[in-house]
From TrEMBL:
Composition-biased stretches (Basic residues): 553-565
InterPro entries: EDRF1_N, EDRF1_TPR, TPR-like_helical_dom_sf
Record-given protein name: Erythroid differentiation-related factor 1
Family matches, as Pfam families: EDRF1_N, TPR_EDRF1
Residue ranges of domain EDRF1 N-terminal in the record: 13-183, 213-463
GO BP terms: positive regulation of DNA-templated transcription
Domain EDRF1 TPR repeats region: 751-1114
Bias (Basic and acidic residues): 543-552
PANTHER family (alphabetical): ERYTHROID DIFFERENTIATION-RELATED FACTOR 1
SUPFAM superfamilies given in the database record: TPR-like
Length: 1128
């Protein structure tokens, strides 16, 4: 049908012909609305499914898909000049009257240009910095920035309430204009159910010849039209609703606001829409605020001459021819992506060859002009090479990729899906051990040459940008193909796995296009595999009894691989897939043809792809776990589990995946994250940032989960699905849950041990929170949470007879009771409460059980040392409390006896092995214990009977002496001085209570020896080998009441007692008559020493006192040594 446009006034004429190739909607009967009809009110049929057949729903939701038209009409590809959405064509033709920018992507397939709108704001300005990185950089370097603002304004305008309201008003108007019909069509889909049956051996479909396929897509245009505009032939998709009725069988409806006159761009829009669909008339309905006012009928040829909307069809025709000639002569490279761009208010159009401008292939290529027979040939060659062990995988990959690029997956889903499966198998071959993949790069056969017409990059970047002045056409340029040898399959295990995942996802995406063809259609086609009947491979026959050479090689290879995997089975027991072919085959296999009459290629290939996904994700998860990328590993395990759930719903039930291994590895990831919590931010980023390949796979998983009604919450492996990594507690509990579920699946020692460890980790977490809590109630709450986990852990480790971990859990149980004892401490510290005693005793029991389980230190030194330290600490803490707050219900003597017993037990568990890491701590603890025991014996001296008194005095001296020895080793100045002065005080007390002068002299001489010992520590202070805080060098305020707590006050005390002891010795030695023959000489020595101490005056500062005291003690030591020599 021809529709010619003419303008007698300007002698303009355009030729336009439109041939409808495909039309979805039924003709809509037009009903003229009454005046004052309120269009704001939705009609009863608005957006109803009964009206979908008229195509009115696209008014609100317009989608573009020119490339799909090329798939639907392969006969047009290469024949028409342009394939595109009608809106894109209109935007190009309106360039003379539209000063805004135009942005489109151009691809060439044979002699056909594929045009697609490129929304700069949507694709470049709203995306993240990492997306379209190169193109963004190129855009900002070459394009006026006003374009950004214009695109943004347009984007925001299209989403404003007024715009959406206007679209809604137009939609309601069109539905109002429909003649109401009571007849509604309902289409019901019948789903055939088949029972699960076993599959054997991966067969792949035969290549077939090209046949038309009218399978509908997600979005079909109302019409697909071959539109000839002058000498330009275009295949376009348009959603223009067409009405008819009465004397006007074909009209388009337009809703106009009475208050707003039509502008030029709108007039061109209406004119081109009518030309593209061969609509001779347009009916204008004028409204005011949604109230219908009047109608006006305008012929299409009159649209260019409307008031306020006059335009030149000839100018539009010239622009169309100019732009097409420009594109045809410059967009010459098949497989390249071109960007057609006109900036705002610019008079030139630029064409950028993005593929040539980019050194790497950052810009994806469109479809390439290879024919279907060539694609089938590539598939056949690749498939046969795949089954030849000595062929190069890189070549096979190149063949399959070109095949996929050339084939419309909607028409040939069996071949495209099979190609994707083979590509995934090239990257991760069947039988790969996930724990030790061994994916090695294969060598390239340099003498091999295989057809490849697409993998090239233009080298002349200077010619990659072409410019069209709107009244000028460029000359045509030729393009020469460059052969590029296929690279070998290389990369890391992760890279190869991600490539395999990508092809699995693409293969699964093709499965949606599988259709059950009727017998009549099958008879008309070239003989090929029937959808429900498996066919033999070309190199073997099902009923053949004699093995071919290739079969023998394949069998020999399988036997060899079987032996190899069985040999490594014990070493890889924790890998996610079974390696023993007797337990699970790496791929499903076919039975003979007669035994499986209901198996379709769709089910078979889908099963193969999911089986491959299991292997790939298992390998990838093990790889990530081995490299300590636990966030990646956990995310991958989640995808692996989703694949397994879908496999369980397919016709083939896979037993290749061991659920307990999957759950166990998920638990391992959780626990390992806890042990490396300082890297949790990296783990979160790994877990949340899915790769592009994983995102594609997730899309397919979501579709199949809906298809098979897979509910993750009802599965046995639901615990592996973690949505975020928040806290340590969350991950610990999730790890325990995974191990427990794994144990239900299959009980093994490995899982039991890992569960026990995780239970201990949870308990330790709660114990740490209890330890750091500020309130006793919170401490008790945390301990209550921890106790069940410790009890369960003990049960598990006792079951597997793991002594080291049993001891560890008993230790933690003891620590728990220590914390509970501390939590039950009364606010006003008094004597031990019954609850404190109870928990301390329980702690002692558990610590001793731990030591009993270990037997000796050699069994497990680390745990042994920890238990002894904890036990010693518990006894020490309890003894300290009892010492400072003795029980009130028993006598003082009995109380002191109990304290000494407890402290001696604490001392018993101190380890004085110098190789022990805690040796210094043990020394210091021993010093404190000895000091306290010495103090107890010291206080016990008064009131003890004469028979026991001598023993008590001796014990007090021994403990004070040992405490002093350990304190000086620990370099604790304050404690050392305190202990030594306690020894002095004890000797002074004994001096006062002694009756015999000789005994008094003996006790005072012992005091003097102690002062000489003290000089060892003072020497360290003088030489600054011991650091003293500044506050320790000041005198205590009210020291007589508060005691001597600083170094300065203790030095003053030493000075005072030294002078006192010397004075007493002088007096005793000068007694008449002399007590012994040495008394006169001793009196002279002590008198001399006493005179030396006069330098130690009251009120001197710390440094002076320290140095003088050191000098005096040194002189006294020399004097005493000289006297001892003369006496000898």
């Amino acid at each position: 049908m021809d529709n010619e446009e003419s303008d007698p006034a300007e002698s303009e004429e355009v030729k336009s012909t439109a041939i409808v190739k495909y039309s979805v909607p039924k003709p809509a009967q037009f009903m003229k609305l009454k005046c004052n009809t309120d269009l704001n009110l939705p009609p009863s049929n608005w957006l109803s499914s009964s009206a979908d057949s008229y195509g009115l729903q696209h008014v609100l939701y317009h989608q573009k898909g020119f490339s799909r038209m090329a798939h639907m009409f392969p006969d047009c590809v290469g024949e028409v000049d342009v394939v595109s959405d009608a809106e894109n064509i209109k935007n190009l033709l309106k360039i003379p009257y539209h000063k805004g920018h135009v942005s489109m992507m151009v691809h060439r397939v044979e002699n056909t240009l594929l045009l697609d709108d490129f929304d700069i704001y949507k694709h470049l300005l709203r995306t993240s910095e990492t997306e379209w990185k190169w193109l963004k950089k190129f855009f900002f370097e070459n394009v006026n920035h006003e374009t950004c603002e214009e695109d943004r304004n347009l984007y925001m305008k299209n989403r404003r309430r007024e715009t959406l309201k206007q679209k809604s008003l137009v939609s309601k108007f069109l539905y109002h204009s429909l003649v109401q019909s009571d007849n509604q069509e309902h289409v019901e889909l019948e789903i055939k159910k088949t029972l699960p049956i076993p599959l054997h051996g991966p067969q792949l479909p035969e290549p077939v010849s090209a046949t038309p396929d009218s399978t509908p897509f997600d979005h079909n245009y109302n019409r697909n039209v071959v539109w000839t505009f002058e000498d330009i032939e275009m295949l376009i998709g348009t959603d223009l609703p067409i009405f008819g009725g009465g004397t006007h069988p074909c009209i388009s409806l337009r809703l106009r606001d009475v208050s707003k006159p039509i502008n030029v761009l709108t007039g061109i829009d209406y004119w081109l829409d009518n030309l593209m669909s061969n609509v001779p008339e347009v009916v204008m309905c004028y409204h005011l605020n949604g109230i219908v006012q009047k109608y006006e009928l305008i012929k299409t040829e009159d649209l260019p001459r409307l008031d306020n909307s006059k335009f030149s069809p000839k100018l539009i025709r010239d622009v169309a021819q100019s732009i097409l000639s420009f594109l045809k002569s410059n967009a010459t490279k098949a497989g390249h992506t071109y960007w057609l761009f006109k900036g705002k208010d610019e008079e030139v159009v630029k064409l950028y060859d993005l593929t040539s401008l980019c050194s790497e292939k950052d810009v994806e290529n469109g479809q390439n002009p290879f024919t279907i027979p060539v694609a089938m040939l590539l598939y056949r060659v690749a498939r046969n090479m795949k089954h030849t062990l000595d062929r190069q995988p890189g070549t096979i990959r190149m063949l399959l990729k070109n095949c996929i690029k050339l084939l419309p997956e909607e028409k040939y889903p069996e071949v495209v899906t099979s190609s994707h499966y083979m590509l995934s198998d090239l990257y991760v071959p069947a039988g790969t051990n996930p724990e030790s993949p061994g994916l090695e790069q294969m060598e390239v056969d340099e003498n091999e040459s295989v057809y490849d017409d697409d993998d090239f990059v233009g080298s002349d970047k200077d010619s990659a940008t072409k410019i069209l002045v709107l009244d000028h056409s460029d000359t045509c340029e030729k393009f020469v193909n460059h052969y590029k040898s296929p690279p070998p399959i290389a990369g890391t295990v992760e890279e190869r796995c991600l490539q395999a995942v990508q092809h699995v996802a693409l293969g699964l995406n093709c499965v949606q296009y599988f259709q059950v063809r009727s017998k009549q259609a099958q008879e008309e086609e070239v003989p090929m595999a029937k959808p429900f009947e498996p066919i033999p491979m070309p190199y073997s026959k099902l009923n053949e009894t004699k093995e071919s050479d290739s079969q023998r090689k394949s069998k020999k290879s399988r036997d060899k691989n079987k032996k190899k995997t069985e040999k490594n089975l014990d070493r890889t027991e924790n890998a996610l897939l079974l390696k023993n072919n007797n337990e699970a085959r790496p791929l499903p296999t076919w039975q003979n043809q007669d035994a499986t009459p209901n198996i379709s290629w769709k089910d078979h290939l889908k099963t193969l792809l999911y089986e491959k996904a299991l292997l790939v994700y298992a390998t990838l998860s093990e790889q990530y776990f081995g490299t300590r990328a636990y966030g990646h590993s956990l995310r991958t395990i989640g995808l692996l589990a989703r694949c397994q759930l879908i496999m369980n719903r397919l016709l083939y039930i896979s037993n290749a995946l061991k659920e307990n291994c999957l759950l166990g590895r998920a638990g391992d990831c959780c626990i390992m994250m806890i042990q490396n919590w300082d890297k949790v931010d990296a783990y979160r980023e790994q877990f949340q940032n899915s790769t592009d390949e994983d995102l594609k796979m997730m899309e397919q998983l979501e579709k199949d989960e809906r298809l098979y009604n897979v509910n993750i919450g009802d599965s046995n492996i639901k615990c592996v699905f973690i949505y975020d990594i928040r806290t340590i507690e969350q991950m610990l509990l999730k790890g325990v849950e995974c191990y427990e579920q794994a144990l239900k699946s299959s009980e093994t020692d490995s899982i039991l041990r890992r569960l026990g460890n995780s239970l201990n980790e949870v308990a330790s977490f709660y114990l740490n929170k209890a330890k750091s809590s500020r309130t006793s109630d919170l401490t008790v709450e945390m301990c209550k949470r921890a106790e069940p986990y410790l009890c369960r852990g003990l049960t598990i480790f006792e079951k597997v007879k793991d002594d080291a971990n049993i001891a560890l859990l008993y230790t933690n149980m003891g620590h728990l009771h220590r914390l509970l004892a501390h939590a039950n401490t009364p606010e006003n510290r008094g004597e031990l409460s019954p609850k404190e005693k109870l928990h301390y005793n329980k702690a002692f029991i558990n610590y001793k059980k731990a030591l009993q389980v270990l037997g000796d230190r050699k069994h497990c030194p680390g745990i042994w040392d920890a238990v002894r330290w904890e036990l010693s600490t518990a006894f020490f803490n309890m003894g300290t409390i009892m010492h400072e707050n003795p029980p009130s219900n028993i006598t003082k003597t009995e109380a002191e006896k109990q304290v000494i017993e407890v402290l001696q037990k604490a001392l018993q568990y101190c380890d004085f092995d110098e190789e022990n890491p805690k040796f210094p701590l043990y020394q210091y603890r021993a010093a404190m214990i000895h000091y306290r025991i010495g103090c107890l014996y010291h206080s016990h001296i008064v009131g003890s009977d004469s028979a026991n008194r001598k023993c008590v005095i001796q014990l007090a001296k021994i403990n004070y002496e040992r405490a002093s020895k350990y304190y000086i080793l620990a370099l604790d100045v304050i404690s050392y001085f305190t202990a030594q002065m306690q020894r002095v005080a004890l000797s002074e007390y004994l001096t006062e209570t002694a009756n015999a002068p000789n005994v008094k002299i003996k006790h005072l001489q012992h005091c003097l020896d102690i002062f000489v010992e003290i000089d060892d520590m003072i020497t360290l202070l003088v030489e600054k080998k011991v650091d003293i805080p500044e506050n320790e060098t000041e005198l205590d305020e009210g020291s007589e009441l508060k005691g001597f707590r600083t170094c300065f006050s203790l030095l003053n005390l030493i000075r005072q007692r030294l002078q006192h002891v010397l004075k007493m010795l002088v007096k005793l030695c000068l007694t008449k008559p002399p007590l012994n023959k040495d008394c006169p000489k001793l009196a002279e020595v002590y008198k001399s020493c006493y005179m030396m101490s006069f330098d130690l005056k009251d009120g001197i500062v710390y440094d002076e006192l320290l140095n003088k005291l050191h000098s005096v003690l040194k002189q006294i030591s020399v004097k005493l040594a000289e006297f001892d020599k003369t006496a000898d």
